[in-house]
Amino acid sequence: MKIKKSSELLWLLGIVFVALGVAICSKADLGVSMIAAPAFVVFEAIAPIWSGFSVGMTEYIIQGLMLILLCLIVRRFNWRYLLAFAVAVLYGYTLNLFLRLLGDFTVSEVWLRWVMLIVGDVITAFGVACFFRTYLPLTVYELFVAELAARFHLNINKTKWGFDISLLAISITLALTLCGDVSTFDWSTIGYTAFHSIGLGTLVTTAINSPLIALMGRLLDRVFDATPRFPSVERVLRRN
Predict the structure, then answer these.
(1) In this predicted model, which residue has the larger pLDDT, 16 or 104?
(2) At a CB cut-off of 8 Å and minimum separation 6, what does 210 contact?
(3) What is the pLDDT, as a whole number, of residue 240?
(4) Measured between alpha carbons, how far is 86 from 92 in angstroms, rounded to an integer?
(5) Global pTM?
(6) In angstroms, rounded to a whole number, what is the distance separating the alpha carbons of residues 66 and 60?
(7) Distance between alpha carbon 173 and the CA centroid of its chain, in Å?
């Protein structure tokens, strides 16, 4: 028996699980996901000169800029895009909450930190798969992929993979340029220590993220009936 009329529940699970997964990956100190990496890198560069700055704040600023880019690519603006930015703000605060809850939690054993990273990746993939099965507003990251795939009739999983690779390249560029300490980078430590939130874990996540999302999606479809509990709200949100 599937859980009926669960679209709204999946939306809530998406926000919680994506934020939790990213927070766990950050504590593994092997490199956060390519989606989260730009925000963490920018935060590391700005935090020393702005004490009130946070990772969550960086997240919704970056997502706001991406929303502008999306409008330019698809050559249209939909009022629902503003809701995506509101979700980005909510996600930013949720991420800050989990980061505070984890606090100064650290693990010294490298193998255990790799376990943390994979667990975080699975949790994040579950959250993203939840987002792709709801009519409620997505974060700008998921909206960007979904709208791009719909606009140009692309496979959504392949589009997500291409999006991940692009953000990985941006993240590496930011890490090497923003903090001004590229000379301290040491290739020999990349497997067990992140360089400004970029590490071997980031590359591993890039490789497994899309397959994990597809797998989590198939599992979700076995458990949840992603129809809306409030169909009138769905009609309003899907109206162009």
Answers:
(1) 16
(2) 157, 158, 160, 161, 164
(3) 56
(4) 10
(5) 0.88
(6) 10
(7) 18
Total structural domains in the chain?
1
In a domain, 98, yes or no: yes
Domain annotation covers residue 199:
yes
Higher pLDDT, 39 or 238: 39
Q: Quick one: tokens of 165? A: 């690779």
DSSP letter, residue 196: T
CB 134 within 8 A of CB 14: yes
For residue 117, the enclosing domain spans 7-238
Q: Is 4 helix (H, G, I), strand (E, B) or coil?
A: coil
**pLDDT band for position 158 (50/70/90)?**
confident
Distance CA 9, CA 103 (A): 28
Domain-embedded: residue 1: no
* Residue 2 covered by a domain: no
Residue 131 to residue 7: CA distance in whole angstroms: 9
